[in-house]
Amino acid sequence: MQMRQATSHDYDSILKLWEQSVLATHDFLKQEDLQAIKKEIPSYFPHLNVQLWYIDTAFIGFSAIQHQHVEMLFLNPHEIGKGYGKQIIQQLIQNFDVQSVDVNKDNEYAKIFYVKNGFSIIGESPMDGQGRPYPILHLQR
Predict the structure, then answer these.
(1) Contact 86, 117 (CB under 8 A)
(2) Which has the closest alpha carbon to 141: 99, 93, 95, 87?
(3) How does pLDDT run across 42-100, given as a tens digit for each residue?
(4) Burial class for 26, CB neighbours closer than 10 Å (0-12, 13-18, 19+)
(5) What's the pTM value of the predicted model, to 2 decimals?
(6) Cβ atoms of 1 and 54 closer than 8 Å
(7) Counting C-beta atoms within 10 Å of the first and last residue's C-beta, which end of the chain has fewer, N or C?
């Protein structure tokens, strides 16, 4: 698996993959909230360390970190369950010393994934960072 730093030229591809992944994994999101978040996401990219992940030449996912915190980790839905997420999180731990991540409480798959990869739930917030009614779990290594 290869990674490379994202540039502003990659934002459309990243957003497309983000939406495909969220539609496959976040069935608890209301459609209007999904559309609002989709509009917000690109404004975060310039402030984050965004990596694109590839198998050969196929773009399979992206990660975004800030200050040892995983802000985003999304895979092409066709690549979920193949061990790529585990490889990515291990590389993020090794190369960037990531220590924490927040996940939607209703995203059971993500919660299990991070716990299996050495993170523990240390807290919970009743709303997401934008004040929407989606509880967030705070995890730390």
Answers:
(1) yes
(2) 99
(3) 999 999 999 999 999 999 999 999 999 999 999 999 999 999 999 999 999 999 999 99
(4) middle
(5) 0.92
(6) yes
(7) N
First to last CA, the chain: 23
Q: Helix, strand, coil proportions of the chain in percent (round to 5)?
A: 45, 30, 25
Backbone Cα Rg of the chain? 14
CA distance 81 to 78: 8
Token pair, residue 15, equals 């957003």
Evaluate if residue 25 carries a pLDDT over 90.
Answer: no
Q: How far apart are CA 36 and CA 15, in angstroms?
A: 13
**How far is Cα 109 from Cα 6, in angstroms, rounded to an integer?**
26
Q: Could you tell me which residues come within 8 angstroms of residue 83 by beta carbon, excluding any fewer than 6 positions away?
A: none
Tokens of 32: 């209007």
Sign for the pseudo-dihedral over CA of 4, 5, 7, 11: positive
Contact in structure between 22 and 76 (CB atoms under 8 Å): no
